[in-house]
Design goal:
- It contains 7 helices and 12 strands.
- The two termini are 28 Å apart.
Length: 220
Amino acid sequence: MKKHQGPHSLFFLNDRLEFPALETANSEGLLAVGGDLTPERLVLAYQSGIFPWFNEDALILWWSPNPRMVLFPKKLHISKSMRKVLRSNQFTLKKNTCFEQVMNQCATVKRVGQQGTWITEDMKKAYLVLHEKGFAQSYEAWEGNELVGGLYGVDLGHVFCGESMFSNVPNASKFAFIRMVETLEKKQYEFIDCQVHTEHLASLGAEEIKREEFIKMLKR
């Protein structure tokens, strides 16, 4: 692992299975560059409060932002309109029935102000292996026999690290997210890691906390 001297000193990862101290991340949360997407490195990253996020044809970038966006299950906010959707039985929740399809949908769904996707072919391959090993999981919203929304992430056994979600019909991804949170609350999960602030997640009750506090809870 080499340190690059520049405006922001970044660590370049090599074959060694390690990451630098989180405090060395720059103001945007960028911690390190390079390395690989092996299951061992990915699991170590999530267990350490780090996640990969980079564009196609670019070096792997590793992030640990401060503050960190999290959702505590007990603080889940369900609007009146969503309560109606939940009561309507419009959607059915399924888990891990089509993980690859969920990833593909997350990669191709159009997002406001975003061109292209960070869910590259290499990322898909890496998370499919993680899925086969039981770490990466998908929660899916089905309307009849059609997959219409969902999300995927990495399950650490006491914390779920959300990666991406998609919706092809209104409220489908919200449905999957809410039902997932309710499921994890029953299993006494500490929190859902939402990584960075978005208005969508904030509307569901997610909040920003200091990275130091996040790591303490993650390690508990």
